[in-house]
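Appendix B. Raw example, untouched.
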Amino acid sequence: MKKQLALVLATAMTFLSTSAFAAYTLPTAVTGAFSDMDAAWKAIEAQIWPILAVVVIGFFVIRMFKRGAKQVG
């Protein structure tokens, strides 16, 4: 009987807790800050990808040059 009561109580508490968290909405200032951070990250990301591509291609070219120089020498 005690186990069943504990199970029912735990289930009820879980239900109440999840429904309370589901109804919570962030304040507008926090939502605005997240939106600004997202825009800033996308701007940084747009600048980083071309640089990263050049660096990766550069490493590949250097590796191929070294490999070719090693075969010649």
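End of appendix B.
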